[in-house]
Every structure is written in C-alpha cells, then in structure tokens.
Sequence to fold (320 residues):
Amino acid sequence: MRQAGRYMAEYRALRQNYTLLQICRTPDLATEVTLQPLRRIELDAAIVFSDLLLPLEPMGIPFDFIQGEGPAIESPLRSEADIDRVRVFEPRESLGHVLDAIRQITHELDGRVPLIGFAGAPFTLASYAIEGGHSNSFALTKALMYENPSAWHRLCGKLTTVVADYLGAQIEAGVDAVQVFDSWVGALNAQDYREFAQPHTRRLFEAIDGRVPSIHFGTSTGAILPDMRDAGGDVVGADWRTRLDDAWSRIGHDRAIQGNLDPTLLLGPRDRMLRSAADILAQAGGRPGHIFNLGHGILPMTPVENVQALARFVHEQTRT
Fold:
C-alpha cells in the first residue's frame, strides 16, 4: 500500500526537482519511482506510481497538490449544472503517459514480479470533486447525494465509464492485476452504500470481467464488507479496525483478502510491529488467498528499515 513515497530518501531526492504531478505525467520518472521500493524491500509485486485523481482533469475538473495539505480541486462540483459540464474522455489519449509508464515498467520488471495497476472508485472520485479535497465529514458530498440523487448518479455514471475504460487500457498496457481504491466509502452506512455507490462499483468490476485479478479496497469499511464483496473484486481489502479473521468471515472465504496491519505500528518498537504481524498471520491460519499488507498506505515518517524488517518477517513466517 503506497509502496513508493516520502518515507524513501531516493523519492524525496526526486521531489526536490519535480512535483508529484510531473512525476505522474513523465513515464521515465514514474518508472523510476515504481522500481525504487523493489530495490530495497522484499516485495511480491510492484504498484505503478500514479495518482487516483488523474482522470479528473481530462473530465474538466482540474486540481493540484498543495504542500502539506494534499489535493485541491480548482472548482469543486456544487450544482447540477457543474455535473452536467463534466466530460467523458478516452483514457488512451488523455492518460497515455500512464500507459507508457506501465509498458516501460513491465519491460524493466521482465517478469520478476507482477505489476498492479489501479484507479479510484466512483464514490471516492466524486467525493474529492465535490468536497474540493479531503474531508472528515463528507457533508457536501452527502448533501448533494441526498438532495439530488439523479445528478449524483449521472456524475458517478460518467466516472464509472471513464474508470472502466482506464482500467481496461491499463490491462491492455500490461498490468497483471488491478486495484480499485474506494478510499472514503467507509463514510457511508450499508443502506446508503447499496443505493449510492454499489451499483457504480459493481459496473466497474463487471467491465474488468475477469481479465486480470482485481482487488477492491476501502478504509473504515467494517460495516459494509459483505456489500463490497457483492460489488465485486477477487480480493477485498480490510483495514486494521476489523480483525482479519472477522473481516474474512464477513467477506466469505470464497474470496481472497488483503490486509491488514495498522501503518502506525511501523513507527513504533519493532518487536510490537512483528508481534502484530504474527497475530494477523495466525488469524489467516495459512488459508490460501491472504495477501499480507498494511490496512492503508505507508506513512511518510516510517523508517525504511522497519518496512524491510516487516517484509522479511512475513516471508520467513510463510515460506513453505
């Protein structure tokens, strides 16, 4: 989860000369950043370096990253007229730089490990576009959703069309699996999830149509894990707020599970981190289909040595 980033000195060195968006839009730089973690950490897959907001700008929703604050949408969507102006586009043209990066990374990897592509789910992309950035309450998103369901579904329909095409293009370019990030969908209760998010996410996974394995991830989703499973994905992610064994029983053992160490444990004593990892592995019980991972992304202040130690430990404990 968020393999590359500010916790790595080599990434910080690049960021002294390039913005995040410049790296995302330059295949050579995106390739370099994607490969950086693999040179230092025993990882079982690579994740293409990109950002889930990239489809928004070609849709007429420009944004930038504000240092210390995260993404900021230039003109948030606040009305039906705003939503009607949102465009559907061809990702093979407007996001061709991501596809070029995938082709370069695949060539560099030469089959050593699989490459995972990704995109944001409709609810999460819509919430960024409406809120103007990150939110704790998602009040503006929910207000529009409740007040004007038809406009909400039109917006999510456009996002679903674009993201489905974008993931299809990533598969064509050579990724071995795709992950759909519904990072903020845990803000919804189960009833609202089924009404406002699930139909669009289901359509997204139906478009992938089993061409490659798919991962469905969100945070704070303990209350909606069965509904996420019904929306789609060969693998469903669980964050650290729910025990892995409990999450898996709710998802169903006919699906794989990804998770779910608390990322803040990598900031503390190493022995506590490894005990917690061992507990998660014990909950999995050696059952096929567990992808050990963090419950969300690596935090910027994480010591690289702890990430390395965690990966080594998991491999030592699970090697047969």
Summary: Residues 22 and 29 are 8 Å apart (CA to CA). The chain has a mean pLDDT of 96.
